[in-house]
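User: Hello! I'm new to structural biology and keep hearing that structure can be predicted from sequence alone. Could you demonstrate with 5'-3' exonuclease PLD3? Please show me the input and the output so I can see what each looks like.

Assistant: Of course. The first part below is the input, the amino acid sequence of 5'-3' exonuclease PLD3. The second part is the output, the predicted structure written as tokens.
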Amino acid sequence: MSGMIEVYGSVWIECSHSVLVWWLCLCEKTLPLFSVSRIVLVESIPEGLEFNSSTTHPSIFQAWMNLMNEARSSVDIASFYWTLTNKDTHTREPTANQGEAVLNRLAELSGNLSVRIAVNTPQEKQPRHDLRLLNDSGAHIRTVNMKELTTGVLHTKFWVVDKQHIYIGSANMDWRSLTQVKELGVVVYNCSCLAADLSKIFEAYWFLGESKSIPSPWPERFSTMYNKDTPLQLPLNNTPSNVYLSSSPPSLCAAGRTPDLQSILSVMEDAESFVYIAVMNYLPTMEFSHPKRYWADIDTQLRRVAYEKRIKVRLLISCWNSTQPVMFSFLKSLASVYNPKNNLDIQVRLFVVPATPKQKEIPFARVNHNKYMVTDKIAYIGTSNWSGDYFVNTAGSALVVNQTASQSVESTVQSQLKAVFERDWNSGYSTPLTQHSNLKDFCYF
């Protein structure tokens, strides 16, 4: 397919469809018929978690409702599982109301426009009420058997609306992700080029929902021009930006797609002064493999940039009922690199979401579920925990944004994400991890 576009009313350029989409995204802030592309950080702050800070962002609940209200033709959602009502907990928990509102609105849309859901094949005991309701309402659902395909799971969490708007982040399609779990994500409005690229990842999942094998190589229609070496260049919030999407595992990456692990290592390599990381789990192992396997790709890179480039490294790791005690042995090892006299600066803190006795009764809640990294140059917002399985076997994705070359007065995503990290790092919910830390003082073991 080819097309013609007029530039400033006089010059015509003939181009392929893909180049046309790229050009239109570049021009969204100058062409009157297109809305300005906006990028917005969004968070879920658990009930009862309060910060003495001015750093706040719109809620993920409101972002999802906004996206559904914007939808005119299609909503595509890639997800790990669905529990937007609290039928699975039998707690009659009133804070499930936001999840129920999302589910009901999506069910309404399913009868009026195209709603497609790619979801990891549910285990036998997992609730399926939400998916049955959506299917009965007209949504098209495909389960992806990642266990058979790669021995992993479909862990991705993203939306594509009208091939125009996207959400990507840590929040599952779970009512707890809106009111009882701390989450972080990002919404990009009015960017057809980025939405088209994320749609290619969704279409790969959609294809695998009816396939018993992974194509090698993937057909051309799944390939991308945008990666860590040739990012998409476009204005976001009137700020020049370099952007790309990464994906895992490598077997699901079509031509041109940067694997998620390579994205993470590259972001660390490009840092010049600091690397701040907030993830629920951090393990230099294949967490779910048998027999046990060591996997140190990320751990080695952190030690290397701290030593060779004197980068300041901060890790904010979650601590809750489901935390594996072995994780702290590895974190203590990493924290032991700290030596100010030799300009070695790696520090680790544990983040605990407080819980009342009633809140403790809610399973799989009250945890910081964030999955992001921010450096002096780049904001990385992903969907994976940081252990080997998530990059070798499990399907995940991430958005990588670099706006630091800009001279715009607009606040960059990088600076906003840095402020979120520093708010959490300096809060009363964060405690330094040292060689002498007694974990029972922090976590609910």
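User: So the tokens describe the shape?

Assistant: Right, they're a compact way of writing down the 3D structure. Reading them back into a model, for example: The chain has two domains: 1-34, 35-441.
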